[in-house]
User: Fold these one by one.
Assistant:
Number 1:
Amino acid sequence: MSNLIYPFAHLLGGLILICAFAMLSQRRLAAMITLYQFEAITLTAAAFWQGYAQHELALYLTGVITLVIKAVALPIGLRRIVKNFNIVRAVETAMPVGLSMILGVGLIGVAVWVVLPTTLSAVTLTREDLAISLSVVLLGLLVMTTRRNALSQVVGFLSTENGLVLAAIGMPGMPFVAELSVALLVLMAFLVVGVFLFRIREHFDNLDIAGIENIEKQGR
Amino acid sequence: MVCYIRVVNQYLALSIGLPGHGLHLAYDPLALLFLAILTPQIIATALGPDRKSVAYWLFVAGMVLAVLAAEAFPLLLGFELMSAASWLLVLRGDRKPATLYAGVAMFSGACILPALFLPPGGIAFTLILLGAGAKAGLAPLHAWLPRAHPAPSAGVSALMSGGMVKVALYILIRYGFIVMGGAAQPWWGTALIIAGAASVLIGSLRAMLEVELKTILACSTVEHVGLIAVGLGIALRAKALGDPSLAALALQGALLCAIAHGLFKPLLFLGAGAVKHATSTTSLDWLGGLIRGMPKLGGLMLAGCFGMAALPLGPGFAPEFLLLHAVINAANTGEIISRIGFTALLAILGLAAALALGAAVRIIGIGFLGRPRSLRAAAAEEADRPVLFGMGLLAVLCVPVALFPGMILLFLNPVINQLIPDAEQPPLGYAPAPLALLLLLAAGASYAILKRYGTKAEREVHAFNGGFGKPPAWLPFGDPITQATGTGFAEPVQRALGRAILGPKTIDPGELYVLDPLRRLNVQFTRAAERVRRATIRQRLAFVFMALVLFLAALGFVQGT
């Protein structure tokens, strides 16, 4: 069983990376939310697996929190917003899918290029885990940058945060407080963003932030 | 607050503040020399109306603190205090040059600050040269000086031109010769000589061509700073090449030039202020005949111009003499390129001396002699007594510099020993006092002979009257347009040299090649910043994201290699 620890951790990390990457290719919100949910479930599994491997009770707790907040509560909230705003059929048009995926491949390359030589002295598990989580973080940022719809930016932000948590659980000796506070922060941010989204829609009748950009331009 | 005195490195030191954390002041021969240069100017300018301003006293305090500083922090504090206070004073005079001046002051502060804490070497000296040179008005960073120095009131202009540039040069000397003296390279001196020669040429030419009296004086300051820099550069180069006697000779010239310039330039600026007070203009084209309305001021200005022109028996001659000697000596040794260079430098110095003489003649001839060109110039009244007293003090102090330069050089010996430890001072080959005595004897004898044997018969002839026609009846003080204007007087020089050196539009190269590109760069930067400011949310996110990825890639690149 113990010789399965590293391969399985890598498998889970790779699944999360695939989810984050697939998010780039999805132009519909519903699919992005489903991918996010799958990512969060995989992250839960990864947290449980690391808890088992490191014999750390706090990691089980992290897994539970991830499951409750990110895998269940947040997708429900996101879907409700999609339904309420009637943007089930909304299609993202900001950047061609192919181009953003090419950029994503480049970012994964950068992440591997940075992490692997920088952490030569560290344990193998941590090194490759770190490379995967940095890729997830960068891909989430790319989603935030390339999407025009506010809700897809929110999903990108949440995916970024998943990458951070993945890095935290793979690191032995990381205090539990950090993960807990990050999780709470995400919840708070989601609430704030939800309120914000309602305000945006009140003004522009959709979630396209081009409206805000127009106002910014007029204001100057 | 504790204040105590101790002896450091055989010179007295004074600590103000908490023990161990105080400001350390000290005086050594070099600091004393510059304090001695500053004191008469401060006294002379404090007699005027400027003494009521707080900024003026802060300015003075900054200069004194910078000169007396024993370590980097008080030096920088004094330097910045001096810059800030003088900026306030310039701002009170004129807003536009004040902004330019603030930029230059910040530039020089930003250059000097890191240089004080860098290890001695080429980079540190280059920074010192840039910072102190910009503050002193060395080419190519001199274009601000003819704009900013005339802006404030006369006393402050006098102190800026006579004192502030000296403090900047003091920092250059202190760091070039003492603090970084061990690491000195010959090219330090060469850089200083080239900058100085360019300043001399441009400064003297512009002094000849400008029309405003105060601007002429400021351009002449650029020239004299250039002369001092040439002397310092020769000294630095000779010291690094191991020729202490040449270094001592050049240093004598530079320091004597600093002393003389510190006397006659404030005198002239105070006089220009008095002229402005009396006629409400300093443009030579509106002056004329002032010596009739203000004879005392005219006499004092004549004395100052005598120094500025570097005429024999004037205070400006001995330093010029020593400098020329040093250049000739330097041209006699070394390889062929340096010989050619020093010979060219000799030509530049000669040209500059001639131009300086022309500028001095122009000030006196156009401004003070001839007929008034405006009613105000005709109605000018004598300057106030305190101003005359201050100018008189400076003029009296010019006398020993002019007639007994050998004695002044004796006082300079400890300074030169401090700067160049193994130098023996060469004796001065110029003795003006006997020369003046001889001249006086000859003049007296010829006067006596004329008086005794000359004819006493009288004959009435039509007055030559300086070439003017007889004034028409309706112009009580003559027709001013029958005489040459300041511009007209400078026209031959403008045709012969101005177009060749300053270009067809006679724009200062420092302005054309330094200030204008900076202005264009500023506009471009502003546009770029405006573009960033107008960016949308997503563009800004993209900026940050790209910066992050770039940093990560750079990190990976560094780690990978």
Note: The CA atoms of residues 33 and 75 of chain A lie 6 Å apart.
Number 2:
Amino acid sequence: MSINNPQDEPANDVLPDVGSDVSPTDTVQIDTGRQWRRLAPVAIIYFVASSLKKLVQFGLYAIPAIAISFQTTSISQSRWFLPVLGVVCALIIVNALLDYLFYQFRVRNSHVEIKSGVFHRRHINLPFWRIQNVKIERPVYYRLSRFAVVILDTAGSANEEASIVAVTRDYAAQLRAQILNERSDYLAQGEMSEPTPTATPAADERIINTRSIKDLVLHGITNNRVWILLGAMAPFFDELADMAGSYLGRQGLQLEQIVGSDTIAWWQWSLYLFTVLIVIMAIMGLLSVGGALLTYYGYTLSKANDRYIRRSGLLSQQEVSMRQSRVQVVTIKQDWLDKLLRRANVFFEQNKTGHQPNQELMAPNKLLVPSVTCEQAKQLAADALPGSQVYPRTYSPITRFYLLHNLIVRLLPIALLLGAFAWYAKGYTELALVGGLTLIVMLIVVLRYWRWGYAIDDQYLYVRTGCIGIDYQILPLYKLQQVVFTQSLMMKRRHIASVKLVLASGSVRIVFLPESAAQALVNRLVYETESTSRSWM
Amino acid sequence: MDAPETDYHNAPVTTAQLPDLWTLETEALSPRYRWLNMLIVAVIGCGLLALLSIVRYQTLLSLPANLLATYPFVVTAVAVGTVWALAYHFLADPCIRFALREQDLVLHKGLIFKSIGCQPVLRIQHIELKRGPLERLAGLARLQVFSAGGAVHTFEIPGLPVVQAQKLRQFILSHKELNAK
């Protein structure tokens, strides 16, 4: 790999405006020169907040213990309580001050350098071209100031991530533009002579999609299904409570005694319980909607040159950008509730970096457009992957052997075995349970078989999966990383095979295809990847 | 997105004309790979049996009777497992075959569940030659090829003679597609 050697060192020791309080001009200088810079003092708040966050994360496990000790030994009354609390606070503040004092950075010759840490010193030197993504965040406590946090994301492991804690927003924006330009220059060094986009990010930025509060409320409702499930169970709560009550009664325990009142009848009490449950469910639903609003309030998806930029957030504003060429897969997800409301979530997925917990909605490698209409979903997909058309389109089904295999080879023996056990032990409720579960699994298998399909055109492979909801995945043929064709001896005899495609964003499987179709698919994918030699980034 | 390519052409390609993964001549791994695996299995199996027998027939400690009663069953299970693993390696290891094409690496494997993997060279991020102590003794090496698909999907060709593995690595490293970007 060739590396952008730093050009002749410009000997400028002029200190441009990075964190000082001089009003920003249009042309903020990126280079900070040879001298190390300190952050704006606002950064202290950031460090306090981050150590509080760490403390909470660390202390999460201790909460039950603390809660119990609060109950049993009134800690708050102890004369140690306040001094200890004071010391903890002081430690946090001192720690933040030290973090602030030991944090230095400079940006020069297309490199970002950061020195940080008090005991555990870290020196990060990141060339611009290695930075995959730049995120600008404005946490709540920065909202009133003009500062922002710049998070630099590299393709490597998670501990290579670096953030510049407090710079002005203008500087952050300029820095991002510069870094992304440099990166596209670097990528263009290959056989492609990509016209370098000029460093005017805001000029030709156009808004592709915005989400109204109504959309977000819908999103909140559709994306937390727990409370809906609970809601569906609500009519049975009373009976469940009765059953539990009679069970406890048989064990010689009277709930009335526990409640300790003769004036409130048993049925009244269960009614109270029911009300409480309803209230809890309503709160959970509201929380979900609130969460959606919190994260996605003021959602705009815009496009500047070849980059998508997502801005959203009620309290902490987030700005995430993703290059269009780095989209590996566009996924349109529609769960059953989404289907009822005729909405869909659209994900632009880029490569996974390091080991990230795969939180679906907040994953940094995915750009989500929440709860759009089906027509919008189609347009968004066509925007990211030009020339693609998800629907209407005929999808080739997978073979019926999927059903046979899953129902007879996999499900039947297990069901029979469990059923036989239950029969033998004369556990007829268990037998009914096994029967019910078997039916449910059968239904799921049939639905999955019914949904599973694929289609291929000049440029894209479309894969449709799902059970009750439908997921569509659209992937450019040439972005393949690896392909695996699998076949058991049984499948070979019946001329069936499965194909697994590995992409930088994850793998996609199409199972139980006719053998010839699978072979043609693999050959085609390999051909498209190798003959075009286009970059997947 | 991508720049307009000057040598753009878009002639229709029927799938029958495409290079085919199924009519490909593949190469075998080193025969020592199978023997090494079988030797490892045999040593571990015999070691376990020896250990069990030592514990059973030693006179220093007296063991509970019901533990002693399980001895024949445990020994049978270990022996059957060892034979099973030996048979598996004997039959399955020759099924692992690879092929190197101009643009990709191909790996066939599997006794009952057969798979054919294909790793285009231009998607390779980096390569490693791995050699454990036993592999070093046998003069073997494993070639690991990483793509952006992540560590789970590492493409590995085991049991290569060292010289051949180094040649393969050199071929991939000097491939023009890999150096394009």
Note: Residues 1-26, 190-201, 354-361 of chain A have pLDDT under 50 and may be disordered.
